[in-house]
Design a protein that fits this description.
The chain is of the alpha/beta class. It is built from 18 helices and twelve strands. The strands form three sheets. It has an eight-stranded mixed beta sheet with strand order 1-2-4-3-5-6-11-12, sandwiched between helices. A two-stranded parallel sheet has the order 7-10. Helix 2 (109-117) crosses helix 18 (490-508), helix 8 (253-262) packs across helix 11 and helix 14 (367-379) packs across helix 15 (400-410). It is globular, with a radius of gyration of 23 Å.
Length: 514
């Protein structure tokens, strides 16, 4: 579909000139356009547009209610709702929620569940993202209240306290009505973590591409990309990366400079920033969906490397010399402008000039800054080169310290030296891969670069049970959340159908307690 390609392109442009490769691959939900149509309830009553914003008085600090409240934004659609139906809640996670209203509709799994079960859908903005901010800045001091636990407590306080704007919306608290929590990517992990931390609050949950395991050294991000990208493209990328890493180990600064200049990136001062820039082409994989094909930036990149005079390379690729020339030429002719626009290379791709506004601006609605705080403190997920002995499509120059150093750049008031994210505490508190809770449906995709942090990670072999089903299709990141992807790919349709089946079964078991 055209919107999928459009959202892919927008994802690239809106992330342009971010001097941190990790933030170009945040575990975010795919976007879809907001339907432009009138909405009516089952009895024919005209309903407010789904873009209507509602506000909830959320606690600034759940550990200190005396600090007061802030206004948390949410959106709602009750076109399918009938009394007794479930309330289906989602946060889009680490992003401005405005623009994600499509997740209220049956163009997503949320709305399909609502349609099947006569439910209502709610979308709530995550604290410190968009315009749901406890304080009017994103300083380190303010962001101390941006934690996984505060986000979980936000959901609990909303569910137990909010009077929803639909008729009867003041009488659908847990116990009066079943609540279902849905999430994808980070918000999928938050779904699982909430089910662990607040048992019984939500009757059931659906977690797509849920990155439940916090991992510091997350080289596994690139494993599904390497496995499923065109083999000739992977071969040539590996050749260039091995060449760069060999020169780095040999301290061949002249050779490295020559390689940088082949990409017209000779002005990038530090070799780790150059190695990071080479990741950018791979991060475009995350924007792919089953209905995206030729014309997507990732495939243009591979075509640039592997199609020569109308001929495709074999699985071994064309070899190092051609790969350097073709990859460099792609940056020169297409990709540099896509990523950096009119900025010079060091300003765009460098991470050592801490006076740049990117590091110092504390204005609200900066998803990159807020997410960086969570990454530096609690989840890691640093997308780095693999250990020796594993195939590498990303340079081993890139290790967690590359990202941890930037935590100091971004938050010098909080970190005097590069911090280690406390992933052990996160995985202990919220169970990580050991998660085991009833009525939680996991949906994953074989081609998802975040797969290795989900319950479908290679080698984990977590059982698929009727209490906590785990389904995996051939999709990409959060592919099963979008209805259209089930039309395109029967393996994704099977995941969606299973999710709908389990929701029907589980909701049939619910009985009111008040």
């Amino acid at each position: 579909m055209m919107w999928a390609l459009t959202s892919l392109l927008l994802a690239g442009f809106t992330r342009a000139a971010i001097p941190n490769a990790m933030l170009r691959s945040m575990p975010t939900l795919p976007t879809l356009p907001v339907p432009d149509r009138s909405i009516t309830s089952p009895n024919g009553t005209a309903l407010p547009p789904i873009t209507t914003v509602y506000y909830f008085d959320q606690l600034i600090d759940h550990n200190n209610p005396d600090l007061g409240t802030f206004q948390q934004r949410y959106w709602m659609d009750w076109e399918f709702y009938e009394p007794g139906g479930p309330i289906i809640l989602m946060t889009p996670g680490e992003t401005d929620a405005d623009g994600y209203e499509g997740y209220l509709t049956n163009e997503t799994i949320n709305g399909l569940i609502a349609q099947q079960q006569n439910g209502a859908t709610v979308l709530i903005e995550h604290r410190f993202f968009g315009y749901s901010n406890p304080y009017d800045n994103l300083t380190s001091q303010s962001l101390t209240l941006l934690t996984i636990q505060q986000a979980i407590d936000d959901l609990e306080y909303f569910v137990n306290t909010a009077n929803l704007p639909m008729p009867g919306g003041d009488a659908v608290k847990p116990g009066q009505a079943p609540w279902i929590l849905i999430g994808g990517s980070y918000s999928g992990a938050l779904t699982g973590w909430t089910m662990v931390n607040k048992p019984g609050l939500f009757w059931a949950a659906y977690a797509s591409s849920a990155v439940v395991e916090a991992i510091t050294d997350y080289y596994g991000y690139f494993t599904p990309i390497r496995e499923y990208m065109p083999q000739n493209c992977s071969s040539d990328v590996q050749a260039v990366i091995a060449y760069l890493d060999g020169m780095y180990l040999a301290n061949d600064t002249t050779g490295i400079q020559t390689l940088k200049e082949a990409f017209d990136l000779g002005d990038v001062v530090h070799v780790d920033d150059f190695a990071s820039a080479l990741q950018y082409n791979l991060f475009d994989w995350q924007s792919l969906q089953p209905d995206v094909g030729p014309g997507a930036m990732f495939f243009d990149f591979c075509d640039a490397l592997e199609v020569k005079d109308g001929v495709n390379a074999g699985p071994e690729g064309w070899g190092l010399d051609n790969a350097i020339y073709s990859w460099g030429n792609f940056w020169n002719t297409t990709y540099y402008d896509y990523v950096c626009g009119s900025e010079d290379a060091e300003t765009c791709l460098g991470t050592y000039n801490t006076s740049q506004s990117y590091w110092t601006n504390v204005t609200v609605n900066d998803a990159n800054r807020s997410w960086f705080w969570m990454v530096c403190n609690q989840v890691g997920w640093y997308q780095v080169g693999p250990p020796e002995g594993l195939p590498a499509i990303v340079s081993r120059i890139l290790q967690p310290i590359y990202e941890e150093r930037q935590c100091v750049n971004m938050f010098p008031q909080a970190f005097a030296y590069p911090p280690l994210p406390n992933v052990t505490e996160t995985d202990t508190m919220y169970d990580g891969w050991n998660i085991s809770v009833p009525r939680l449906f996991f949906a994953n995709g074989l081609r998802d670069p975040w797969r290795e942090a989900t319950v479908s990670a290679d080698g984990l072999n977590k059982p698929n049970t009727t209490s906590m089903p785990i389904y995996e299709g051939d999709g990409f990141h959060c592919s099963d959340l979008l209805t259209e992807n089930g039309v395109v790919d029967p393996t994704i349709a099977a995941v969606q159908e299973a999710g709908l089946m389990y929701m029907k079964e589980w909701l049939a078991e619910w009985t009111p307690s008040t």
